[in-house]
Every structure is written in structure tokens, then in C-alpha cells.
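REQUEST ID: PR-0412
SUBMITTED BY: lab tech R.K.
PRIORITY: routine
TASK: structure prediction, single protein chain
INPUT:
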Amino acid sequence: MKLAEALILRADYQKRVEQLKNRLVQNARVQEGDQPTEEPKVLMEELTSLLGKVKQLIQKINRTNIETSFDNNETLADALINRDIIGQERKFYSNMLEEATMRHDRYSRSEIKYVTTINVKETQKYVDELSQKYRLLDVKIQELNWRTDLME
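STATUS: complete
OUTPUT:
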């Protein structure tokens, strides 16, 4: 199995875990005299089994990310961390730009006037650079995910 396939499977497992948790909550309590739609004990066993599969799959994915070389200096795990940090920084500056460029209409001269304290043009250019770095890094990571076999 390729690493990319394992990541897709992990996402599927996680969706199934959420669905099982919701089904369990719905069937954990019923009106006196009624029967649950599904047997909670069966759902709990299925959830426990599925969580075991999720654990094993995540361990294999993590092992693969740590052992797979991304470039001459970094592992795939390092590249994933870099991508996440770039994404967080991009999100922060995008949010700051949104706040800085928000228009506050004043109805009279006595209302408080707000002014932007950052260079919007430079900050937007930086956000665009971060977005491009993120996309390029993400493409390389995705490409490597499809070429890399999942380690046992």
C-alpha cells in the first residue's frame, strides 16, 4: 500500500469513528419501554475494533514519515512540519489583513476613527508568497506520498 492510500484510509477510518460515536450517543438512552435502534454493546465493540485499526495505521504512517527522505536535509516528517508552520503563518497574516482592511463606517465625526497600522500591500505580498510556498511544498509532499510504500 502506498502512503497516500494509507492517508485516504485513515481519513475514512476517522469519519467512521465519528459516525459510530454519533450512533452510540443516539442509542445510549431511550425512553422507558422502547428499544434502541442499534445495540450499544455491538457499536462499542465495533468502535473499539476500528480505533485499534486507526492506531496501527497511524503508527505505520508516522514510521513511514520519519524514515522517508524528503530531500538531502529533511525527512518527510520535517517537510510536513514545515508545511504546517507555513500554513499557520499564512492564516495568521491573512486574518490580520482581514482585520486591518475591514471598513468601519462612521456616522458622525464624534465616533472613533480606526486606522490601519500595517502596510497592507506588503503584508498581502507576503501572504501570497507564503501561499505559493505552501502549495509548492504540498505538491512535493503529495507526489512523494504516491511514490512511497507504507512501512510496516
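NOTES: Residues 69-152 form one domain.
REVIEWED BY: pending
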